[in-house]
Amino acid sequence: MRSGSAYVAALRDGRAVYLDGELVKDVTVHPAFAEPIKSIARTYDRARAAATDPALTFAEPGTGRRYSNMWLVPRSAEDLGARRRVHRFWAEPSYGLMGRTPDHVASVLRAFAAWRQLFDRGGARFGDHVVRCYERARDEDLYVTYAIVPPQIDRSQPAHRQPEPFLYPGVVAEREGGIVVRGAQAIATSAVLADWLFLSYITPLVPGDEDYALSFVVPIAAEGLRLYPRRPFAAIATSIYDYPLSSRFDEVDATVVFHDVFVPSEQVFIYRNVDLVNAQFHESPSHTLANFQSLVRFSVKLEFMAGLAMKLVELHSNEKNAAAQATLGGDIAALCASFDALVQAAERGPLVVGGVARPHPQYIYAGMSLQRRLIVDMMRTLRELAGGAFQAVPSSEASFTSPETRADTERYYRSGVASARDRIKLIKLIWDFVGTEFGGRQLQYEMFYSAAQPVVNTRMFKAYDWPAAKAAVDRCLGEY
Ligand SMILES: Cc1cc2nc3c(=O)[nH]c(=O)nc-3n(C[C@H](O)[C@H](O)[C@H](O)COP(=O)(O)OP(=O)(O)OC[C@H]3O[C@@H](n4cnc5c(N)ncnc54)[C@H](O)[C@@H]3O)c2cc1C
Question: Which residues contact 393 (CB under 8 A, 6 or more apart)?
């Protein structure tokens, strides 16, 4: 397994990241990206230190070589448990705030390679490409991210009827040994921090969209590939004390633009095939496996939120107050425990199809459907518990050191159980979670990281056991 320093060194590859109109020379030292990169690097180091830990790695049959469980093809509930452990391992360092850690798209590639028959339908060489790219990503421990949703230009029209050709990414030419791709995808979270990009469409394509019906991987540093990050939060955070999350765990969403990027054939999984692009995520186990990562990661975040809520209540000596206890129980703990149960149900009762254990779709989509409501409810509850705490704070850490303000700051910002410095530290942490630009993006991420609510709800509709529900009604009707 590669070390954190090898991961960081690989990011110095001449990638084209443009921030505020300027090319970033080295993302690993730029203040906007250095801290999140360090955070990922530390987890690579921890993973390397655990390279023989049977809880987090498996031995590949045949070679005996050990790999992270993120590359394990699940055959049983136990295997899904092994995957859950590695998802927690990657989620815990950021308290579930970084969603697109390497184990997310690794789940997609693992699922694709376990389901090569789908890609073979486009020609056997495509299945080979999938398996080889998967093996390379696994062997080299690559961080892959993805861009699978096109920009919001005209949602009433398919790809080939947008105002101009190749606003959405599509193939503009075939060249010796590969294809040339032009166009943009809306968001690739973590692309600045990653090694490779997987590009395709999860939004349905229609006949006529053949030029856009692609699925492939490219290195982020591929010639002609540009990343345009939104405003990174680390760059505007004035200190870790004042912005403990913004400064360290911004995974940086970026728009991806392809300026006639050459993609070698052996990196292409689907070529000009609308049906296969539409089928790849749901016919293969990739959607349920990747979103299992998302749910495990979210449960880590919920635990963290529960901890924040409890510590906030304790900070102001409210823990014995019956109303505060009822809020903590009903509006925090009940939601966290219910969500945990969904994750466990998805893992323990998998749907085994073609020898691959899919986390049960009924619970995956129930979790995804609830997630966006829970995050809103939990954030609102944290705000309720805080009252005016977020506003009655010193403007920055400097208030504690200035001889002019130190005495007042220490005297009036303390609580009955904590010094002013410790109390404000917790308050600023919670505000960074619920109220800053970083916090707002967290909310938007949970609402949209996968799809709009109606899309997720339709998945849930398809996954639910309606015949069983209707049978109960028929039985009742038959009784009289
Ligand atoms: C923080 C963040 C990170 C992201 N990271 C990634 C990433 O790493 N890779 C990636 O590929 N994508 C990423 N996405 C994009 C994400 O996949 C899309 O935002 C999501 O699929 C929704 O698509 P959209 O943004 O085009 O919104 P739209 O689909 O245009 O939805 C916008 C509005 O239209 C409504 N709407 C949409 N469809 C319907 C419908 N059928 N019926 C009724 N109403 C509808 C929605 O409810 C919503 O209110 C990210 C998004 C966010 C916010």
Answer: 413, 424, 427, 428, 431
The alpha carbon of 448 and the centre of ligand 1 are apart by a number of angstroms equal to: 5
Which ligand 1 atom lies nearest to the CA of residue 155? 30
Mention every residue, 6+ apart, whose C-beta is less than 8 A from residue 233. Answer: 243, 246, 247, 250, 436, 437, 438, 441
- Residue closest by Cα to atom 26 of ligand 1: 152
Q: What is the pLDDT of residue 407?
A: 98
Mutate to test the pocket of ligand 1, among 145, 448, 461 (most ligand atoms within 8 A of CB): 448
Could you give the residue range(s) of every CATH 1.20.140.10 domain in the chain?
285-470
pLDDT at 60: 93
- Considering the chain, tell me which residue range(s) the CATH 2.40.110.10 domain(s) occupy: 4-282
pLDDT digits (tens, 9 = 90+) for 324-371: 999 999 999 999 999 999 999 999 999 999 999 999 999 999 999 999
User: Is 0.85 surpassed by the pTM of this model?
Assistant: yes
What was the pLDDT predicted at 95? Answer: 98
Measured from CB, residues less than 6 Å from any atom of ligand 1 are 100, 146-149, 152, 155, 186-189, 253, 441, 444-445, 448-449, 451-455
Residue 186 Cα to ligand 1 middle (Å): 9
Residue type for 345, please? Answer: A
Domain 4-282 has CATH 2.40.110.10: yes
- In eight-state DSSP terms, residue 351 is E
Structure tokens at 63: 């070679």
Dihedrals φ, ψ of 67, to 5°?
A: -135, 160
For atom 39 of ligand 1, the residue with the nearest CA is 454
Q: Are strands 144-147 and 196-199 parallel, antiparallel or unpaired?
A: parallel
Q: What percent of the chain lies above the pLDDT cut of 90?
A: 99
Smallest CA separation from ligand 1 atom 29, residue: 452
Atom 4 (ligand 1) nearest CA: 449
Counting every residue written for the chain, the total comes to 480
pLDDT recorded at residue 427: 98
According to DSSP, the β-strands at 253-264 and 178-189 are: antiparallel
Q: What is the pLDDT of residues 65-116, one digit of tens each?
A: 999 999 999 999 999 999 999 999 999 999 999 999 999 999 999 999 999 9
CATH 1.10.260.40 fits 285-470, yes or no: no
DSSP letter string, 186-207: EEEETGGG-SEEEE---SPP-T
